[in-house]
Write a structure and sequence with these properties.
The complex is a heterodimer of chains A (299) and B (430). Chain A has 299 residues and is mainly α. Chain A has 13 helices and no strands. Chain A is globular. Chain B is of the alpha/beta class. Chain B is built from 19 helices and 13 strands. Classes of the chains: A mainly alpha (299), B alpha/beta (430).
Chain lengths: 299, 430
């Protein structure tokens, strides 16, 4: 029997399900099932390394423990600060670069290619090579900074004041090109006649930027920041390679702490509760953000 | 064609049946063991495959393997602290019957190593490993710099005693500070490369070298797991404060997340006068002395008591292995005194009494006497099944105080006790 004949009796809806079925199954197996399992575990005192010890139901104890733990709030604060500064810098620099590259000039394409190179690298590799760049004795970073102003020797990843900035700088260096690319797409979608009409109305360049460019590019910028926000909330590899969360716990982001609780201390129940809290947080913020973004788009 | 296929297939089956896999950390002694094992293969026909994991990932990789009941390894040279988990969770094969059958006596091995690497519960006669690699934290120093008359006289004038092997931690600090920022042969030098690593166990292994020397005990000897007043005793607090002073006054710039390899690099590149490290590295350091560099070695200096941080490992048979008989054959071979002597000769640290008690042993290398001295005074971190849970809060709190400069030493130790109490409570020990 030919395939055509076989599917002849199926409705469009059924054929649609046939196509998305495997994907849905895969999603259920690798996303939904682990999520449900983690939620179940979060109500138990399960330790994955304690073989033979049956998990016991302990109600909300893990959630109460996570939310009352001062150290957890410290990690959340570190994460919030990391997200705030990286998103702010990536928005400003990314938009600035997009405006620059939106102009026609010689070498534009080459410059664009060079600027996007960092985001093509592996975060773990970036973390490792920036440890060398930050080395106070032989690193290029200290040399460049001291070239402009003589601060003397300083240790970016060994100082509790500078270490949080060290991860912000690296993340900004790596991911600003992403924000830039999305903004550039936004800028190129603005029709020229809007600027021509503004010229006719004798609008200044600044007014054109405020009333045409910015509103047009804002939804794109917000979308880029949403992606970066979600990614940075989960940031792990680059920071682990760069600072291991140190000095002390100065750069220990929530995701690093979660990994340590789950796969080094093997507190499976407790870390599941922590993971659920993080998931709800990012999901909640994400939803609010998307609603705000849609309202901006509608204007 | 079919014949060829059948013969290839049978070859692969045969080669699999006569091979075992040994897991260890990727470092100099592992290479020496690989070399030594060639003799085992020649004698028995059993191939030994090695999987060496870099130290920062060693515990993660191996413990995950054991927790998942993995069959990758037949033999594992695991850290001393793992013995509790290996025994309690059933990852390691208990070796008593095998030792009795093969006439392997634990009294043939150094008592400190048997206690640390083989037994669980501690000090019992339940053996889960054969002592494989004795080790302790020690110090190497630039003897060539120490021998320079101008530096010796300047030091003596300043401190009133000779520049040499420090008799205690105060002298160690004086000497490290003496070299800090000093220009020697046109290059700026620093005092000491000490352990400050945050991620795995580095800073804990370093700071405990000081804490043990100050006389710190983990718990009340008469009341197990009662840590208040012991782990945070005034002596322990003083030791942690001293370690921070040593870091602030004497470490090279950027030495804020350093362990074995970083210490070696700082020393080999001529940056520092001293390095803290494991005996396992001294054969390599000694062998690579060149360009005027002469290395001296000494055991951890005493302060209130003589003590050193224990390193080293025992070799265990993995319970989930399908080739336990071949793995046991390897252990039988490795326990032989002649093999143990070759092990030492190749750069491994044998724990066998025949090797250690040999009259020629103390002078066999420049670090042999120090090794003997150290193995008599070693102390180890908790060897509880929950040792990782115990290690991580200590890493964080000590790094926060020593490197980050946050809070006080007493606060750091109190915080650690608080976390440890939680761990012991969850484990039903408190």
């Amino acid at each position: 029997m030919s395939v055509k004949k076989k599917f002849k009796g199926l409705s469009d809806k059924a054929v649609g399900w046939l196509f998305i079925g495997p994907t849905v199954l895969l999603l259920l197996a690798i996303n939904i099932y682990p999520l449900v399992y983690a939620i179940k575990m979060s109500f138990t005192n399960f330790y994955a390394n304690k073989i033979g010890r049956e998990p016991q139901f302990i109600g909300l104890k893990n959630y109460i423990k996570v939310l009352n733990k001062e150290a957890i709030w410290e990690k959340m604060q570190v994460t919030a600060s990391f997200m705030f500064w990286t998103l702010l810098l990536q928005a400003i620099i990314g938009l600035g670069l997009a405006l620059l590259l939106n102009r026609k000039f010689k070498g534009n394409e080459l410059l664009t290619t060079l600027i996007v190179l960092p985001m093509m690298l592996s975060p773990a590799v970036v973390g490792v090579f920036w440890t060398y760049l930050y080395n106070p004795q032989v690193g290029l970073f200290n040399y460049v900074v001291n070239f402009f102003y003589d601060f003397g020797s300083f240790d970016m990843i060994g100082s509790s004041i500078l270490a949080p900035w060290s991860i912000v700088i690296v993340d900004t260096w790596m991911w600003t090109p992403f924000t830039m690319l999305i903004c550039l797409a936004g800028l190129r979608s603005v029709p020229n006649y809007l600027y021509e009409a503004a010229e006719v109305d004798r609008a200044s360049k600044w007014q054109q930027f405020i009333y045409i460019t910015l509103p047009s590019v804002l939804p794109f910028l917000l979308l880029a920041l949403l992606f970066r926000g979600i990614e940075n909330f989960k940031m792990f590899d680059m920071v682990v390679e760069l600072t291991s969360g140190g000095p002390g716990s100065a750069t220990e982001l929530a995701s690093i702490n979660l990994k340590r609780e789950a796969f080094e201390k093997w507190k499976t129940g407790y870390s599941s509760a922590f993971a659920v809290i993080l998931f709800v947080t990012i999901f909640g913020f994400g939803n609010v953000y998307v609603k705000v973004m849609n309202k901006i788009k509608e204007r | 064609m079919i014949l060829l296929f059948v013969s290839l297939f049978s070859f692969s089956v045969n080669s699999n049946a006569k091979s075992i896999t040994l897991g260890w950390a990727a470092w100099d002694p592992a290479n020496a063991l690989q070399e030594l094992t060639k003799e085992f293969t020649a004698e028995t026909g059993i191939e030994v495959n090695f999987e060496f994991v870099p130290w920062p990932n060693f515990a993660d990789r191996m413990l995950n393997e054991l927790n998942n009941k993995g069959k990758t390894f037949d033999l594992l040279i695991g850290d001393s602290q793992w013995i509790g988990a290996g025994a309690v969770y059933g990852h390691y094969v208990k070796l008593n019957d095998f030792f009795n059958k093969e006439g392997i006596s634990m009294s043939d091995f150094s008592p400190a190593t048997v206690y640390a690497y083989s037994t669980w519960p501690k000090g019992s006669e339940n053996y889960y490993a054969l002592p494989a690699m004795g080790d302790a934290l020690a110090w190497a120093y630039r003897k060539d710099w120490f021998d320079r008359p101008e530096l010796r006289s300047e030091f003596k004038k300043k401190h009133g005693y000779d520049l040499g092997v420090p008799a205690n931690w105060n002298q160690l600090h004086d000497m490290c500070k003496f070299f800090q920022g000093r220009e020697i042969d046109g290059q700026k030098r620093y005092g000491a490369a000490i352990n400050t690593e945050r991620g795995s166990e580095g800073i804990t292994m370093g700071v405990t070298a000081a804490m043990y020397a100050w006389g710190m005990e983990y718990e009340n000897p008469n009341k197990p797991y009662d840590m208040e007043g012991y782990f945070n005793s005034p002596q322990a607090v003083e030791a942690v404060e001293f370690y921070r002073k040593l870091y602030e006054d004497c470490a090279p710039p950027g030495h804020s997340d350093a362990y074995m390899v970083a210490n070696l690099d700082a020393y080999k590149s001529g940056q520092v006068a001293f390095q803290m490290n494991w005996y396992a590295f001294w054969p390599g350091v000694s062998k690579e002395d060149s360009g005027g560099r002469v290395s001296g070695f000494f055991a951890n200096p005493k302060q209130n008591v003589a003590a050193a941080t224990l390193g080293g490992q025992g070799i265990s048979v993995v319970k989930y292995s399908d080739k336990q008989d071949l793995a046991l054959e390897y252990i039988k071979w490795f326990a032989r005194p002649d093999v143990q002597q070759k092990w030492w000769d190749l750069g491994g640290y044998s724990c066998h009494n025949d090797v250690l008690n040999s009259p020629s042993f103390p002078t066999s290398t420049v670090y042999a006497q120090g090794f003997l001295d150290s193995m008599g005074i070693v102390k180890d971190f908790w060897q509880e099944p929950t040792f990782v849970e115990l290690m991580l809060p200590m890493q964080e709190a000590i790094h926060d105080y020593v490197v980050n400069g946050k809070g006080t030493a007493k606060e750091a130790l109190d915080k650690i006790i608080g976390e440890w109490v939680e761990v012991f409570e969850a484990d039903g020990k408190l």
